[in-house]
Design brief:
This protein is mainly α. It is 60% helix and 0% strand. The longest helix has 32 residues.
Length: 67
C-alpha cells in the first residue's frame, strides 16, 4: 500500500545548537531602554537591504535587455 498520512518521528533532538549554548536569555535585555528604536532600525535596515537586492536585479535585467 501507499504511505500513511502520519509523519515519521526521528529519535533525538533536532536542534543541537540549543544544547551547545550555556547562556540564558533574559527578558530584561529585550525590554531595556531603546529596545523599540533598535527593533525598528533593524527592521528598516532589513527592508532596505531587501529592496536594494531587487533594484540591483531589475537594473541587471534592464541592462541585459538593452544590450
Amino acid at each position: 500500500m501507499g504511505r500513511t498520512a502520519h509523519a515519521s518521528r526521528r529519535s533525538g533532538r533536532d536542534d543541537h545548537s540549543v544544547e551547545e549554548r550555556n547562556t540564558l536569555h533574559r527578558i530584561e535585555d529585550d525590554l531595556a531602554d531603546g529596545w523599540l528604536e533598535t527593533w525598528a532600525r533593524t527592521g528598516v535596515e532589513a527592508i532596505e537591504a531587501y529592496l536594494a537586492k531587487h533594484l540591483a536585479f531589475l537594473t541587471y535585467l534592464d541592462d541585459s535587455a538593452t544590450a
